Amino acid sequence: MKFEESTKYKAFKAFRVDQARQFKDALSRARTVQGKPLALTTIDATLRLVKGFFHWLAGQQGFKKVVTYSEVEYFNNNRNDARAAHAQCTVQYPSTKATHHAFQGMADRTELERRNKAMFAFLVLTGARIGAVSSLRLKHINLVDGFVFQDGRDVRTKAGKTFTTWFFPMHPDYLACFTKWVNFLRDEKMFGPEDALFPRPERRLVNGKFVFDTVSREIYANGSIVNKVFKAAFAQVQMHPYGAHSIRKTLVQEMNDRDLTLAEQKAWSQNLGHENFVTTVSSYLPVSDQQQGALIKRLEVA
Fold this sequence. Notes:
The structure is a single chain. By secondary structure, the chain is mostly helical. The chain contains 14 helices and five strands. It has a three-stranded antiparallel beta sheet with strand order 1-2-3, with no helix packed on it. A hairpin with a 4-residue loop joins strand 1 and strand 2.
């Protein structure tokens, strides 16, 4: 623990307020392996963890007279650094035009290439998180009504949440590609409801060598493949390699660009798995200083 290092491993029962101040000074002087100062986010997170530990310790038998809750507050970060640490960074995301361009450039000759292209299309249609995408099975897909049931019991959704995502009304190429893939799995590969929607490759022995040219029926252990496929699609057309999560921002921007009613916007938000519409607006549709100025200047005098 960094705090113990700063006190030279003194017993917690020897705690003094000065140790909290010294610890904060030590963090401000600390350097990474590259010789750079610790990031403000790292310092803030470290202070919060240590404060949380001492807050717990203050209520334990034998420590109630040693550590008081008021003394624990000395682990608070200073206001300016805390605000800077939690400031939202601008996240790059592709436009709908750039996304479709990357999609069109994806190959679809082999089974794995068709899987990858369908995976990309599915991300645009649903904005699903990479953990969910990598753990979905055919039973979760309803092509007739056009939705995916993200069942938190066996799909790796955020916080185990269960919700339905209806396919977003994006370019028809995406739905055509995804539909073709699902039908291929069901009709040609004879996949059943419990088989993976985007399966791992299957290892086969061909002419004395192992090859990965077909899909298995198994899901991936995590969502790293989804990110890899999404980034590669943009990189191959010489564009910025956007992360898969950025498509959620693209979809929210699409919502903002359309002339939707408030109810339609809320439905769009819920489709992304947001219980609160404010989450969609504040986290995915921030107004920059430049936009703020432009919008205010356009307003007419009442």
